[in-house]
Design brief:
Layout: H1 2-10, H2 16-36, H3 63-73, H4 78-89, E1 106-110, H5 120-128, E2 134-140, H6 153-158, H7 169-177, E3 182-188, H8 193-198, H9 225-239, E4 245-249, H10 257-263, H11 274-289, E5 295-301, H12 317-320, E6 326-330, H13 350-370, E7 377-378, E8 381-383, H14 393-405, E9 411-414
Parallel strand pairs: 1-2, 1-9, 2-3, 3-4, 4-5, 5-6, 6-7, 8-9
Length: 426
């Protein structure tokens, strides 16, 4: 009504100075109206500024998005340019990430069945009743399925988090933490039949374009950056659930490399070797996870401790050890060929095989340190399963003794079905 009255008087021929005063008043009124059109934001310091993804859709628009909007609309004003210039020059404070307390880990592996509500307590009791103190928990298993309910777009799109073992991962991990148990999130990386089948452009393909598989198991292409992003997104998400550590398994190319290389065409525009590609992934992971309060470990073939090349799977000790916190050779005696380390029957020589593998691992790390590089803490996998022959408590203890005799204080116990020889850990 006020603006309407002013406009009527101006049309009635009032003196010039009154016209000027009226014009100024109108300008002020328009200015007030424009200011009122900008929503008031009440976010306090520390509020989550990522609650909304659109600009100007409601009164709860975030500070960050509102600033972007104002700057776009006011880009011609000199004062706004000065503000933008100051913002660009302002140094962002470095994030100080507090990592979990370092512990000498002695852990067992738990699959998706073992972490369900009806089963998990028996494994917590097993750990508490022995000299064990840690659990390696599947969060992305050998089939490419997530064991928890995820918020990651790709996981939701393909349904890799369908039928999760737990609907509340944070609550599950707290249950372990309340018992003083160190928790490690196992993420199977490039062996992912579920992603390969449901997002075929990420899969390893034959030279004719068909999907490749190894004995019916499909893999994703380790050169695909989209896969790297998916993996590290999972790592970030489960880090928020309270895990102490992320463990990458199958961080490699398929075995039987000569045969596979004759069959497939990797998506490798940069011409990287397999070993360089695994190194590039680890560096990418380091960058993505640098502000996460977790450690990172990697599983490698047992022979990686000794082999001078990458065995066609992309795993070189010198590439991996400097870029993770822990490295876990899978030194299962039954998986070594006859004659390895001069042992005729490695399966029946658990102490000798583990001892020599750990000697070589220590030597590789020693040389890296001498060249001024950081090295991962060695934490091998121990065989507690039957393969060529039945393994008993004594066979498990011999491997652990060999580890200790090489000055290594940490180890993990593997049994795919999670049926452990409890007396070996008393």
């Amino acid at each position: 009504m006020l603006q309407h009255n002013v406009r009527t008087k101006l049309q009635g021929g009032i003196p010039l100075f009154k016209k000027l005063i009226s014009i100024i008043c109108i300008a002020l009124l328009f200015g007030c109206t424009n200011n009122q059109a900008t929503p008031e934001v009440n976010n306090k310091p520390g509020d989550n500024i990522n609650n909304y993804n659109t600009i100007g859709n409601n009164l709860n628009t975030t500070n960050e998005n509102l600033d972007n909007r104002v700057r776009k609309l006011s880009s011609n004003y000199e004062d706004t340019k000065k503000v933008q210039s100051l913002d660009n020059k302002e140094e962002r404070p470095k994030v100080q990430v507090e990592k979990p307390e370092r512990v000498d880990v002695r852990g067992i592996y738990l699959n998706r069945t073992s972490i369900t509500e009806e089963n998990v307590q028996q494994y917590i009791d097993l750990i508490k009743s022995t000299n064990l103190n840690a659990a390696v928990i599947d969060v992305k298993d050998d089939y490419g399925k997530l064991t928890y309910d995820s918020n990651i777009d790709l996981a939701n799109k393909i349904g890799s988090d369908s039928n999760p073992a737990t609907m509340d991962l944070t609550k599950l991990i707290k249950r372990f933490k309340d018992e003083g148990i160190y928790t490690i999130a196992r993420i199977v990386v490039f062996k992912d039949p579920y992603l390969a089948e449901n997002q075929t452009d990420f899969a390893i393909k034959r030279k004719d374009g068909a999907l490749w598989n190894a004995s019916g198991i499909k893999w994703v292409d380790p050169y695909k950056k989209e896969v790297w992003n998916y993996i590290t997104s999972i790592a970030k998400e489960v880090s928020n659930s309270g895990f102490d550590e992320i463990q990458y398994d199958y961080i490699r190319f398929p075995e039987n490399a000569k045969k596979v290389d004759q069959e497939v065409a990797y998506d490798n525009p940069d011409g990287l070797s397999k070993a360089d590609n695994i190194l590039s992934f680890l560096k990418y992971s380091e960058e993505q996870l640098k502000n996460e309060p977790i450690y990172v470990s990697a599983d490698v073939f047992g022979l990686v401790t000794t082999a001078s090349d990458d065995m066609g799977i992309g795993q070189l000790w010198e590439n991996i050890s400097p870029h993770v916190d822990y490295i876990s050779p899978m030194t299962y005696p039954s998986h070594y060929a006859p004659g390895s380390y001069g042992v005729a029957n490695p399966d029946r020589a658990p102490y000798e095989i583990m001892l020599q593998a750990m000697k070589d691992a220590n030597q590789r790390n020693k040389k890296l340190k001498q060249s001024g590089k950081d090295t991962a803490i060695i934490r091998p996998w121990v065989q507690d399963f039957d393969y060529i022959s039945a393994y008993n408590a004594e066979d498990v203890r011999k491997q652990i003794q060999a580890i200790k005799d090489q000055g290594i204080s940490q180890y993990l116990i593997w049994n795919a079905g999670n049926v452990y020889t409890t007396e070996a850990f008393k």
